[in-house]
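Message: I would love a firmer grasp of how sequence relates to backbone shape in proteins. Thank you; the sequence and its tokens follow:
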Amino acid sequence: MFKNYLKTAIRSLLKQKVFSVINVIGLAIGISAAMVIYLIVSYDFSFNKLQADDERIYRVVSNFSYQGEDNYNSGVPVPLGPAVKAGVTGVDVVAPFYGYGYEGKITVDSANGTPKTIKKQQHIVVTDGSYFDLLNYKWLAGSQAQAFKAPNQVVLTAKQAKLYFPHLSYAAMMGKQVTYEDTLRTTVAGIVEDLQVKTDFVFHDFISLKTADTHKRMIEEYTNSNWGNTSSSNQLLIKVRKDASIALIKKQINALYEKNRDKKYSSSGQTHEFDLQPLNDIHFNSRYDAFDGRQANKTVLYSLLGVAAFLLALGCINFINLTTAQSVQRSKEIGVRKTIGGTRQQLIGQFLTETFVLTVIATLISALIAYYLLQLFGDFIPKEISYSMLFTREVFLFVFALIIVITLASGLYPAIMLSSFKPVHVLKGHEANGKTRGTYLRKTLTVTQFVIAQFFIMATLMVGSQISYVLSKDLGFSKDAILYISTPWKQSASNKKELLAKKIQALPQVKLVAVGGPAPSASGTWSSYMQYKDGKKETETEVFLKNGDENYIDVYQLRLLAGRKLEPRDSASKTFVINETYAHTLGFKDARKATGVMIDYNDKKVPVVGVVRDFYQKSLHTAIKPVAVILNNRMNYNNVHVALQPQQGKSWSKSIEQMQDIFKQLYPDEEFSYTFIDESVARFYKAEQDTAKLLNWATALSVLISCMGLLGLAIHSTNQRIKEIGVRKVLGASVTQIVTLLSADFVKLIVIAFIISLPLGWYAMHQWLQRFAYHTPISWWIFGGAILLTVSIALITMSMQTVKAALANPVKSLRSE
């Protein structure tokens, strides 16, 4: 039976080649998008599935609030871990660990006796055995009981161990030396298997916490009793008991903090509370850092699923529309089949088989399209996702289920409708007269297609407009032709960076050089609380600090509104240049009146010597905050900022090569790297740029699918009205009149779709723009552009058939009458 269905289906599809091609392409686009999106979504949602009871694992995180503004940190104060272990009930495991903030060279023993150097190794932590009580690593050499008992011991993952000692067995690696930053010499005390699941726990070097008892720098960082210092490097994981109350555990942790915290800020309006973040939330919650830096966004993932669903729906709508439109041509076939004994169930089976064959063909084509989609979005999707992942058992099961769903969604209604024709009526031609039963359905589905297409167009125009706005907006400082060079952090106390700056300043293509901290607009922040007393009241403010020497303001062309800039005679942290926002916060509407006032900072009175125009410290997602620019403290900051002369030919490239040579003379063992400020600013909006790229793709595909369906309906409509067109031409109708007649009904449907999509688009755009503290308005041209673009593309698409029909010789169409 199925063999006969298959033969008949293939004959029917070959007979209607144009409609079959339109259906196959529409479905192939939707299926390929679904395949790629399935890979992305399933990849991210499979993170951190570590063990059966991982729902009991939480990370303790910090939530801050000051003057109505919330801030979040994935770290905790150092003493919190031991305090939770000693004083909180309902917890089985307490596992503190600390990021070892060093990315310099690592020296290891080698087979030939010459130490081997490995550079730029991240994800090194300091911890104890409790970390391995929490996460079930498999031990390949050594044991958890012994590995963390003594100082200066390290446990390595298998992959990292093979990097350090490629020719040794795991047993032979035991006792080998690994030296960090030339000062911390450790012994390999254990090898563990890499976690075999996708996870954010990417650490590979585990230095014993006992080392902090002997290593000077680690004593200061990992064993202090300061409850007021919160760093994202200091992390705390816990595993709660099965019957434990999460609310009660949080209450106990916060009570510990209240008992031990510094009461200095008790009246400042600042609050600090701890929360418990579930393990499966770490990969998605951007409020708190993930360990490897990359996090997924559930809203984006769900949006991707929505895009896939929309594109699949558009392909299914095309199929339903074109199949029901052909009902008149197939009505006599159905009548004959029923007359010779065909049952309705057999007819439904026949039509579903045709849909199934089309869907399978579309799926095979979509596998090729998916390859190019993965290439196109290579910088958007996780690098671990590859084309080969399409040929896994899970994806095959997903695609098979998708084929069944699409077959039923696309083919079931047309099959039921076509099989319901009464043979007596269709053989007499009654069913072919007037409107078929699918007319209103086709109009509704066509409107739905263009609602989706116009929504995508509006969203694309809005996102593009906002990205253009943020990248072209005056940020309050110069970002063009400026780069910064990072010098080694471990040598920040030396005068080498001042010498580096001096030598770079001597290059002919360099305009000005400054030494300081981050650029005016940077992802990281440094802030402190400052007080100002005007004799009547005290104003305490969180102030963000920018650190630079006397050239810093000039390099970035910060506009001075009052007072003076920093000068070489100003000692570190003894004078401030503040921004307008801080001057206004202090109560000065006129910036000139803010100069000379004294600010309490670190128990010192510091004078304000100047006020600069506001500039954005971060992206436009964040409002401008109070800022103080202070003189560079060379002990802590290690960036050299370089303003270049206008480029002539390849002059910048030559100058950068010269800077690299100077850098290598001073830092022969370090890698030279530089960043242009305009590029770093653009990276603030990578998520929006990725969204724009996704929307451009989704918009193009949705418009393509919709217009292909429209073309199919236009072909059907003109074929049905071929004799009417001939009569009108004989009676004197012009080509323009006939084209207008054939296009008018479709244009009406597009206008109706626009009316429906307009409020939906406005609401979605309004919600998206709330992510920005500063944004472009929702302009009328976005909506006008959407309808104009849609109508234009639709008319061009339909004209391929309507103009052809209008130009046809009426004698040919009327001859058969």
Remarks:
- The two ends are 40 Å apart (CA to CA).
- Residues 482-683 form one domain.
- The chain has 25 helices and 24 strands.
- The longest helix spans residues 686-720.
